[in-house]
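=== RUN LOG ===
request id: a7f3
mode: sequence -> structure
chains: 1
length: 148
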Amino acid sequence: MLDLDLAIAHHILIFGLFGVLAAEFILVRRGMDPAAVSRVAAIDLWYGLLAALIIVIGFSRAIFAAKGWDYYSHNLFFWAKLGTFAVIGGLSALPTITYLRWRREKRSPDDGQIAAVRRFLWPQVMLFPLLLAFAAAMARGFGEFGAG
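=== RESULT ===
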C-alpha cells in the first residue's frame, strides 16, 4: 500500500508542478503591473514547495517502495530524470530571484526584463516532457546497468 500511496502522491505533485510552471509561463508577459508581479511571486512559491515535496516523495519511493533503491540506483533513466529535474530547478532560480526583486521594488518590469525571464521559462517547459519519458522508460526496466 505504501508503494501505491507514494506513487499517487508523486504523480499528483508532478502534475501540480507543471500546472504552476504553465501558470508562470502564461502570466509572465508584457504589461505586467505590480499586482501581477505579486501573483506570479506567490505562484512561484508553490513551484519551490512542490519541487521540494517531489524530491522527498520521489526518494521515498526509490528507497522504501516496491522496487527499492537497488533498482533505481542502477538505472540510467532514473539518473537522467534526476539530472533533468536538477536542470529545470537550476533554470527556475533566476525567475524566482527576479520575481522577488520586482515585488520588493513594487514596480512594473519592462519588456526586456520580461523577455529575459521568459528565456528561462521556455527551456523549463521544453524539458518537462523528458521527465515523463525518462520515468516511463525507467518504470519499464529500460536503462538498467551494473545491477548487482
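=== NOTES ===
The chain has five helices and no strands.
The chain has one domain: 2-139.
=== END ===
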